[in-house]
Amino acid sequence: MSEFLRSYLTVAIFGLVGLALVGAFLGLGRILRPDHPTPQKLESYESGVDPTGDTWSQANIRYYIFALLFVIFDVEAVFIFPWAIRLDAYGAFGLIEMGIFIFILLLGLIYAWRKGVLRWA
Amino acid sequence: MILALDPLYLTNIGLAVVLIALLKVVLAFAIVLVAVLFMVWFERKVIADMQHRIGPNIAGPWGLFQTLADGLKLLMKEDLVPEHSNRFVFKLAPFLAIVPAFLTFAIIPIGGNFESKGGSVRIFGYDTYLQVADPPIGILLFLAMSSIAVYGVMLAGWSSGSKFPLLGSVRASAQMVSYEAALGLSVLAVILQTGSLSTHEMVADQAAGGFLGFIPNWNIIVTGFVPFLIFLIAGTAELNRPPFDLVEAEQELVGGFHTEYSSFRFAIFFLAEYLNTINMSAIIVTLFLGGPSGPVLIEGIDWAWGILWFLVKLFVFLFAFVWFRATLPRFRYDQLMDLGWKLLIPLSLGWFLFLAALNIGNDRGWNPGVVVGVTIVGGFAGGALLMAAIRTARTERISQEVDAHG
Amino acid sequence: MSAVFAAVSTDAPIFVAQNVFFAVVALLMVGSALKVVTTSNVVHAALWLVLVLAGAAAQFILLGSEFVAVTQVLVYIGAVVVLFLFGVMLTRASMGDDESVAGEKRSMAAVVAGLLLAVMSVALIDSFSDDRVVIDQPQLVTTVADSIFSQYIVPFEAISVLLLAALIGAIVVARRD
What we know:
The complex is a heterotrimer. By secondary structure, chain A is mostly helical. Chain A has helices spanning 2-32, 53-59, 61-85, 87-114. Chain A folds into 2 domains: 1-32; 57-121, NADH:ubiquinone/plastoquinone oxidoreductase, chain 3 (Methane Monooxygenase Hydroxylase, Chain G, domain 1, Up-down Bundle), CATH 1.20.58. In chain A, helix 3 (61-85) packs antiparallel against helix 4. In chain B, strand 3 and strand 4 form a beta hairpin. In chain B, helix 6 (163-194) runs antiparallel to helix 9 (226-238). Chain B is built from 13 helices and 4 strands. Chain B is globular and about 85 Å long. At the A-C interface, helix 1, helix 3 and helix 4 of A face helix 2, helix 4, helix 7 and helix 8 of C.
């Protein structure tokens, strides 16, 4: 158990050192760089007309559908990972069970495909 | 039950063990930073060569210090936080882009003697694996870190305070999220073959045995080429690299999600992208090409051969990514999403089930020809039904539109 | 209650370390959860939620269940909160603070939350105060797989139907345009 926790501690330390390194560079930069903000510099860069409210958000609901589809396939993948490891022990019956699972979720994908939510992304 | 654990941690914890772990962390950092600097220079030089020009050649011999010079320049530029932005999230987003990239590197085995010592190397009298950590769920950590990388992109665009970065970041995150599903599903074939999620186990499995005496037991051959191809395509799209870089292209939405970022914060996004490229290549090498496994030709320095083979294979894929950039035209966004959802996901799931059936058939003594035959028939039947369903939907839609305009 | 503390003081150092980490992560989670409900910017609330979920994943690792921990990061943080942020960014997209999100009826909410905390604390401490958490081996993925595909196979198949229903429902609602 302690070996297990030690390897995760190493990963955590690795991440923290990375964070500290990047933070140190940014701090170093703050010392080195000039700092003369003027109102013109702080304006957002706009090279065209901003799209307006309602019509824009309606057209972009399809991006939301992609994120939803991802949630579903992510949960599916999370269930398939442990099964793939113990495949031999579950045999043909396990294959059928998993096949049913995947088939039902593929039905969902086909439904989305037919309803046209995967078009014109 | 054997856990794939680094032999270093099985000894009693003492100062030497802690120091060796720290040494690995420091070495990994050094390798990461040097590799990123090298990769940026390498890409510019190779693309220049393919486009029949010279590329950077002034800062240092052959322009080797160009990346360092660019980094220093960016460090000393003025850092502007736009007025209408959300300051806290604006400053947080670069960190969310680069820390997952560092963490992915921790699970990659970069060396080790897999011929005789099971992948370990002797440092100062202790046997240890040449990877920072080897958690038993190794490859899932890689998938989790790519999921977190989406946050960097999303929050950068949103916090910039204007609609162009926001739109760019929404499109980029939708692209990354779509291909993450395909990425995870194509790793399944490798996990099926290995029977474990640990990266060390995957390399050890590919180091053993072989076919006909000289073809190595690499997963690229054993799982068929299909999961490898799917992983390569999904990985390129996940990285927002050409030919899938529409959301970052200069001719489109200005700079995409990082339009409003300047100086070192922009450099962090830039470095994170190249670091992710190196990580993705390293993961491909680990999953499909056997990582650091390879023949040990000189017994005396056995620890060096693992690193050498790993670097050679890694180099092939780094070159491949640069080659894609130099030669392939860009995908349109809808073509990109179609490819991800309509081709890669069903194909990876279908191929995985096929491999699972073959595996079980092997154990239970089924005739592999029968399994292949059933799969082909089932595939055709399923494909025909799918085409019929799509076609009826299309004719309905077209008749609706004709009625509406008629 | 006292049994728990006695166990802590006499066991090996690793248990002390686990308890210390548990306390730190738990404090972080409670603080972040409070920020989720009190901050007035929706996206900030989502980010504090990510911190709470990351804390939950860390607790799972401390308990030795690494598959559950990585699933927490992969699905909850990597997909569900991303979905939530997509929804927020595509509709509200307001930069600054939005008082209506956290302002009204704060004191009543605090009273209800306090009562709930009291009831749950009494119930949990009463039932579990004499139990001890003894984890000497981390939980293997193979164990999780075995339990899903033998004991919980029916809920497993039910999950696929549930996901299908969620997907169809969301598509129907989103297409009502």
